[in-house]
Structure formats: C-alpha cells, structure tokens
Fold each of these.
Amino acid sequence: MAGLDDLPIRSCVLFTRQSPVGRLRFRGLIAAALVAALAVGAAVWLLAGAAADLGRRHVVAGGVPLDEVHPAGLPAGERRPGVVVAHGFAGSARLMAQFGDTLAARGYVVVLLDFSGHGANTRPLPDATASTGASTTALQHDLDVAMTHLRGLSDVDPARVALVGHSMGATEVTRYALAHPEVTATVAISMPDSSFVPPQRPARLLLLAGGLEFPGFRAAAEHAAEEGGNDRSAVVVPGVEHISILYAPRTHREVVTWLDDSFGAPISTAAMPSPMRRVSAAALLLLTLLAGLYPVARAVLGGGRRGWPRPDLPQLGRVIPVAAVAMAVAMPVARIAPTIRLPLALGGYVVGFLTAAGVVLLAYQRWRGSTPSAPAPITRPDKRRLAIAAPVLIGYAAATIAVPLQLGLTNAVPVGARWWLLAAVWAGFAVLAYAAERVAGGNSFAVLAVSAVAVFGLTFAAVVGLTSSFLLLIVPLLAILLLWQAIWSAVLNRFSAPPWLISLVGSLLVAWPIATALPVIG
C-alpha cells in the first residue's frame, strides 16, 4: 500500500514514456517553457545593458518629477555640459529615456522631466490640447524647474546647457531657448509648428522630422531652418514617423553631432548604446506574456476547447454595416455625453464614443432577438471556476500591458486621478467589447471587424473636427491594441469564457495605456 501514493506520478511518467501523444505534449511544454525563459532572459539582458554603467537618480523638484542620468567615471570636481530632455503630448520622461542613455554615454549630464498632466506628474495640464496661454505657462514653469535643477548639479557646468524636445516638448524647448539666450543649443524633434520662431533666435537650433510624418512637420522644420542661416539645420530622418523617430539611430547621431559641434568638440568618443534596447525588451516581454495567455486560460478555465474562429463572410456582411451605423450615431453623441467632462485629454470623447456605440450595438442585438450561434463547447466553466478565473485573468491582463510598458517604453503606473480615470476608460472599452462579443457570437473575426469600424469612426471624428486632431497620431496604437484584444478574445472563447469576462479582460489591455498616457487636465 505504501506505493499507492506514487501512483499519480508513476502514471504520468508511464504515460509520457509510452504514449506518443503524451511524449509530444510533454516535449512541447518543455520547449515552450525554454523559449519563454530565453525570451524573458533576453529582455532582462536588454534592459540591464541599456547603458548600465551610467549614474541614475529620480527626484521631485518643485512638484516636477525628474530623472537624472550622469556619465560614468567622472573625476571628482569635473563639470560637464548639461541637457534637459522634454517629451511630447501624451509622453513621459520614460519615453525619452533612450536620449538619456545616448547623451550620458557621450559625456553629457541629462535631466528628463514629466510635464504637468503627464507621467508621474500629478499636477494637471490646464487644457486638453496644450495650446492655451495657461498651458504654455505651466509647461515653461516645468522646464524652468528642470533647467534650474540641472544647473545646480555638482557635475554640471551651468554656463554650458542645451535642450532637446519632441513634438509638444520641441515647441516648449524652443520657446524656452527664445526667452533664455544663455542656452547654448536646442534640438526640436517633430515640432508641429515653427511660425512663432523668429529668423535669428534661438541660437544653434537643429530641427528633425520623420520622413513618414505628416507633411506639416517637415514643412515646419524646413521653414524655420531656411530663415536662420548657418546657425540652423533641418534634417529629415527617412523611414520613421512621429514615435519611431525617437528610436532611430540616425536621430541620435544627429542630436549628438549637433551638441558636440555647439560645445566646440565631442565631450566623449564612447560608442552610443542602441536606442532600440528598451523598446526591444518591452516587445519581448509583451510577446512572452501574450504566449502565456493560452496555458493560463487553460489552467483557470479548464473545460472543453472550441475550434479556433474562422471568417464568416455572411456574418461579417451583417455586422460591419450595423457597426458603422452605431459609430455614426456615437460620433455626435460623444460630443454632448457627460463623459466629455472627464479630466483626461481626448479621453472624455473616446469613452463617450465607445459607450454610445456599444449601447447601440446591444440595442440592435436585443431587437434582433438572438445571437449568432457559436460552436457549442464541450463543457462550460462553472461559477466557482469563474470566481477564480476572473481575478486571475484580469490581473494577468494588467501585468501583460503594464509591466512591459513601464520597464521599456513609457510611464504605465497610474498616479493620482489616473486610478479612477482608468476605471472610467476601462468601462467605456468594456461596453463596446461586450456588445461586439454579443453581436459576433464569439467569432473573433467579427469582433475585430467591429473594432476596425470603431477605429475608422474615431479617425473620421478627428478629421472632421468633432475631437482633437491629435487623435490621428494615436490611432495606429489604438488599432494595434484592438487587434491584440481580438487575439485574446479568440483564446478565451476557445475555453468557453463568458462574454462578460472576455470583454473585461480584453478591454483592460486597451484602456490601460490610454488612461496612463493621455494627459490629465484641469
């Protein structure tokens, strides 16, 4: 009888030894675990090797969060040129961290800041477009705090300072340099408008634009450069758009060369670290966690497995026109919905649009009186299993989106009002996701079709002026997130998860980066 305790283990061993199917499954699990371990290890190596020898410190000065990056091995008492790096609208200091790596590796002391309403800064931005005098005053105040802090560092020569900014940050660093002629050099990356820049000021201005950006960005750079003579230069970085320009090696080489020339000579000839290390690590972590969804869902949901979804052309022919009508109704409704008062730039309109579209789709589904038939599952998860599965899958979704973003891309930890704003944005996306699941009957291709129509509707709303045109810059990201949500829908439908759980889990993936990136306004 003593050997009975070992029967489950022995049975499992015998199964893997004797059954070809068992051996294949066991080897597949081992291979998958090894691949996941290698991917996570590679991500950790990329993050750890992102200029790891540099000195780093996070401080808060005057309410402004600041990240310091110091060159390695500075002799005691030696002072170096300093650079303040400013992010764009819906960005953060973490989004610009690769510039801290590049510049500090080349001998500069760097300070990166979170503007009001952005990243870890809990002070709201005065308006939703950063275009009013009040917003300009707030942003200039934040820059002044960062510059004052930079000049006060013991390893910085306060007479040799420069500014680097992207998009909204490019506009603000140029304005700051106009008012502070002591700034040695300025780099404006993807500045949307240069009409405020006079011909001879500021000194030493480099303007960069992406070859795939909207033509207005390139025109702004070229116009400002033409009026400034030899003290200015405009460079178009080929093959990049508004965000990928931040990771292009050409961008980093141009910035370093301009600053070196402005200060008279290279501060250091050390090799520049790859600006892709952090974002590559984030991508690896993201893909690894995505691959982990299947075993996690299988463990917590159990039950029989449906087949993978297939395109159903007649169903798509019904769903797409209905979704288009829902989006057409939602566009004007979102302008007057109570959500428009949410203190999140663009967020109020987006939440109102998604909620209204979801309500219209649910009304259609109720009027129609039935849901398209889905393949019958072998077994459905019972209530006790769902009580465990719901928090596990929601937590897994939160970790899948927040951890890679925070470690390798931008600030993804909600602070202050962002916690309840995250709940509001999540609710809006969940309503549309639930409606899509109901109308689609669990077919993820139809769910994706609804998401595609929603992206088109938001794009159209931005083009015709129903909401800010800045939405056009984040539509590609939104499209990727909604595609990702459809993939999660396919996996969870395979394990017979109910529509409410699928919508809660999938919508969190989309809502989290939107709620933590868009500026908090007040």
Amino acid sequence: MKTSIKKLRKFFRLEAERDYDNKAVMGGLANILSSWELEAREDELPEQIIQAVISRLRDYHRLSEESREVALKGIWKRVNKESLQDKKRDKVNLPTDKPAPVPQQISEPPAQKKEPSQPKQKKQQVEKTVTPPAEKLDFDTPVNSIKGIGEKKTAALTRMGISSIRDLLYTFPRRHDDYSKLKPIGSLWFGEEVTVIGTIDSVSTRSVRGGKMKLVEAMVSDKSGALRVTWFNQPWLEGQLSRAKHVVLSGEIEQYLGRLTMNNPEWEPLSNEQLHTNRIVPVYPLTKDITQKWLRGVLHDTVQKYGPSIEDPLPDQLRSSISLPVLSTAIQEIHFPDSDQSLQKAKQRLAFDELFLLQMGVLKQKKQWENRPGQVFDSPDVWINSRLEQLPFQLTKAQIKTLTQVREDLCSGHPMNRLLQGDVGSGKTVIAALAALIVVRQGAQAAFMAPTSILAEQHFQSLKKLLGNNPDEIKENEITLLIGSTPEDQKEQIRKKLSQGEIKLVIGTHALLQEPVEFQNLQLAIVDEQHRFGVEQRGTLRQKGNNPHLLVMTATPIPRSLALTTFGDLELSVIDELPPGRLPVETHVLFPREIERAYSLVRRQVDKGNQAFIIYPLVEESEKIDEKAAVEEFSRLQKEIFPSYSLGLLHGQMRPDDKESVMTLFRDKEIQILVSTSVVEVGVDIPGATVMLVEGAHRFGLAQLHQFRGRVGRSDQKSYCILIPGNAEEIENQRLQAMVETNDGFVLAEKDLEIRGPGQFLGTRQSGYTELKLASITDLKLVEQARQHASELFRQDPELSQENHQKLALAVNQFWTLKNSGDIS
C-alpha cells in the first residue's frame, strides 16, 4: 500500500475511534492536506482522488459528526476502488505509463517557439479612459488578424466558439482571483490568498516519482523573510525564473513540514504593470493548446485596443435611470477590474443587457402573433353551459376562469398563444377538449400532440369520453389516434381523411409532424407536456395550418422568472386549484435499510383494495450505474416480496401494444402493483392508486418526482409517496427534502430551477433564446427590472425606428440572429 494511502487510513481510523470529533490531528484533519498532497503526488495517486480528498477534508470541520462519518467512509471507499484499479493496470503492463495529471500549467513550454515565454509587458498602466482611436474598428475582424495567433491557436479558439474580435471580447472570465492584497513575506498566514514581491535567491529542478515528474523549487525572499515556492511538471520554469531575478507571486499560502509554502502560484517578472499578479485576475475557460497566461495576454491587448470603441446600444436615459456603467467600461472591467466594486457593476450591466435584449425579442415575437389575423370561433354562453352540464363533474373556479380566457382568445380575431399550467390532476385536459369542441363545431380541425404513445392513447380515450355526448358537433368516427405504432394502412387512411377534412380531431405523438400529414383546415394546435417538445417541433405542427390557435399545456409549474423570459411571448393561464375531495399526498424519505417498512405499506394499501406503483431509475441492471433496475426487481418482488399479489411490469423498451395491455390491466385493477421506470411520469390516470414508491429517488429531478407523486392521490383516499435513495449518503439530498416539505408545485418548481438551472429544468433544449453568459434566469429581481424597462420602451417605439434607438435595434438583431428559429416557446 502506498505511503500516502497508509497515512490516510491511519488518520481515518484515529478519527473513527474518537467518534469523528476532528481531533485525530492537532488543529483538525484539514491540517494534513499540505503535506499529504505532496506525498500523494509522489505516490502517483490519480488527480481526481487527490482533489476529492482535498475538497472533503477542507470543509470537514463544518460537518456534523454523522456527516463526517459518511464523508470519510465515502472517501475511503473511493480511494480503495482506485487502488484496486491501479493494481489491475499494473498487471496488464500498459504500454504507456503517463504521469498523473497535475495542476494547471501556468506558462507555455519553450517548445512552442512561435510565442514568447511571457506575455509582452507594457511600459504604462492600463488606462480605462483611453480616448477611442480615430479609425473605425471592425469588431467582426477574424481573430487570426491578431499578431501571434497562428493556425494552431485559431483552431483552438474556434473550438471555444471564438472566431471574431467580438467573440473574444464577449468571452467572459468564469471567475476572478483576487490577488490585490500585497504583503511582506514575514507577515504571511496559512490559508490566505496574497501577492508577494521578492528576489529569486535560488532555483533548482529535481525528479520525483522515479523520474516521472519534475519539481521546480525556488527560494524567494524580501527584507522580512523567505518563502519556498514549488511548481509541478514545468521544468522550463527554472530558466525563466533565473532570468527574472525579481518576481511577483500570487496564490494561496500553504504549509509543509511546519514551513509556509506556495504551490503552483501565478507569477511574472517584476515590472511597472502586473497582468497576472498583484490585482484581481481573470480566469478564463480553456481548451487544448490554450493556456491561461496566453489567453489573458491576448485579451488584455484586445480589450485595450477595442474596448474604448465599443458603442453602447442602451439609450442614455434608460442607462442612467438605473445607474449602469457605459458598455465600454463594463467590458473593460469584466476582464481586468480595478476593484471588486467596479467588477460587480460590470457584471450587473452585462447581465442586464442579456435579459433586456432577451425581453425585447420576446415582446417583438408576441406582437407579431398579436398582429396576425386568426379565424374567429364563437362559443355562446347558452351553448357552452349546455356542454358543461353534460360533463360528469363540475369545473372548479380556476378551470372556469381558464376556459373564459381560452374562449376570449378564440373569438379575438388573432391567433391564441396561451400556456396552460396546472398541477397533475388539476383538469387541464377538459379545457383542451372544450377548446377543440369550440373549433370543430364550426367545421375546422384540431390536433392534440402528446410526448408519448401511452399519453396520446390515454388522451384519445379521455377525449372520446368527454366529447361523446356532442354528436351534433363531432362524431366518434371524426376523432382518431395517430402514433408511431399505428399500422401503415391505417395511417394512410387517416392522412387521407385529414387532408379531406373528414377527421375533425386527431390525437397523436411526433407522428403528426411527418410531412405526409396534411390538414384541410387546421385551426387549433394543442401541445401537452410542452417542455418535452423543441421549438422546431411545435413550429412544424403550427405550420400545418394557417395561423392556427395554439394552446400549450404543462403539469410542471413555471416559475415567474421563466414565465417572464422563456415563455414571455405566451399568455399565461394557471389552474391552481385541485378538484374537491382531493387529499394532499403524504410524503416520506426512508433509508435504504428501511425498505421493508415501505413494502408493508404497499401490502396494507393493496389489501384495502387500492393499488401501488414501484418506480426504478433503470430498465435493466448496468455495470456503469449501481442502481436497482425494473426488470430484475420485478422478478424478485413477485417471487420474494409480494408472491400473493398480482404484479405488472412497464418500461420504455416494451412494444407499444404490450405497454397498452399492461396499462389496461392496471387500470382495470387486474394488476395490483405496477413495477415501472419513469415512463409513468406523465399521463397515467389510475384513481385507485394510493402508494407511489420510488427507489433510487436521488436520481430523479424535482419535476419528475412531483410528477410521480401526482400519479397517486387522484381520489378521496389517503395516498402516500415514499422516496428511497440508493444509499444513506443521499438521505439529505435537498430535492428529496423539498418533496417532504411541500406539495405546492410552484414552490418545488422554484427550488428545481434553483438547483438544476433552466437548461435541465426545461427538459428539451428551448432554442430561440440566446444562451445567457452572465445573467441568471433565476434572478427574479433583475428579470422583472429588464421586463419593465423593455415593456416601457416597446410601448414607445415597438419597431425601434427612432434615431436614438438605432444602435439598440442592431443589438437586438445580433442577439437573436444565431438562436432565433421563429418561435420562442
């Protein structure tokens, strides 16, 4: 066993014997990190293991004793696993024995002769108020026009999405390191990030790890003391440091054998201007063949030359009313800030720009649809009331309000563009059915698109049942289902009848989008679980009609910040009221060892005549993912756990007719317990189900878990949702705890957006709005501010035709050019 691993085991054992009180080492386990890291590197431990140990032990003192135990056992398990893999690699004698990765290189190796080893030093300080040069600068100039950027660097920058000067200026740092605190060496303290200026007293290179790794060591001193500085695997630094003599170093102060040290600091020769040290230093995203120092130097020169000439698209009155700096200053400060205060102001300005330009495009899109003509569909009160009386239930107040909004849209003379959101079981489908009935009663056609065959089939049955009592408006043979598994001869008949107008309402999946599908007069497009479809797919369906009305529905509550941005072009209807008699679902998180408690609950509920779901994250067992799988667990549950009950299996790899058969048996209560994957997340309506048991629950997002929970509690029976993570460490998972704390879908949606960000929250990527670089859609205050000012400006000059809005019009077009596909949401 390697020395560093032995030491780790020794410290961990001592800590366990002391009941994890963080006193196995004087000053706490974090104090071993400096010396242990060096030994680990000499032992050739994988870099990911070294970083894992450092990250866990650095914050070890902040953990509770229970969490400390979990953390140490987790680290040790991972170290053991990697050690075993190392032994296996040794046995097979791999032909290439590369050294483990080392911390990020700081400067270019001398082999790259085309570029100087240090960025060219300027004789004067950066002046942020430089007068713009007289000549007109072209920001679309290719980056290879910059001196020193050859073919290799151009290719690397292209991989980063940088092809022009504008791209380069808008490649923002991913973080900033504050090295502005200059201290004498004699006043340094362990753990602080500082800058020191000193003289190189000595510099040498020695081999470690049997010659596989080079260590450059330098002694740097000033009048107050001396400091040992080390760089890993950068042997060319010895010559550079020797020539430099006087240097500036910036980094974290560490400790080795009782002496303060610096490992892999940023450094540069002492000059009048410091670019990499003694300031707030930008840290950029990188790719192969691009180093931090090189990119920082290129950006510094580019910002100096082009920054002052950047034109500001925001009207002066708007900018000054919210105290934002001019754009040229913001660009210069985001890259090379004078202070933390100026950096924050620059971030605020650039984030506001993104959200403001986003809102201007959203409002433009909304106005375009509002200005288009749409067919008028009346629904007299007498007629609609007679249809409501035929329903087997009464609409809630929220449903009635939403129906009124939809009726107003349909008779407005402009295409409806409405997002209908409501929790699982809130009754969105009946609103869609009535909207379809309003349209087809006047001879037009409606299409209802769902993301899965199971959901489409269920909507088909539901809509036939809801509309079956209205033969004067729509007959049973005028409602049809079109999905991928529909036999080809039936598809041909359906397509023919759609094109001739004989079919009034078609329910289907992506099959509706295929080119052969044509409508005689499509006037209403309904999209269910809209986040599962991309913008292009919704646009394709819409284009099959002439400015048809659009109703998109979601059971995932949309946080206000997203409603104002991603869905800002849509009118919003919310069904925030469940049908009367529904009880909230009781939710619990159990340890994996408590699984028998969950099984007992399932048995008790099934014995009462109810039904249960048991969900697994995988279809079949995987070597890569250590989680239970539905197929294997189904066999075990039937044989060992529930031998006297009727179980069914459902997953996405089954044939459509097999899925339908299983769901029919479950709906008819011939199956008591359904073992399934996430395929039941949407569209399975089983009123008799009262238990939702989710294993491997930590692998699902909040939106999914909330959807699962929505599959139960659809009657007046008390229902339960049991969440069991795959291991005890995940019990404190914040998604799982949020599920216990609230049944409110909007609260969970806000939490989910906060945890996962808009990309994952929205599911299928919502193209049509530019990827935001600095702004956060979760920043509701800034989103609302941008929306307010965009709305005011849009009311004054919707076409941005006024002279003082010409620059803004250009900026809006540039912002939307790359991503806009004609439909935002």
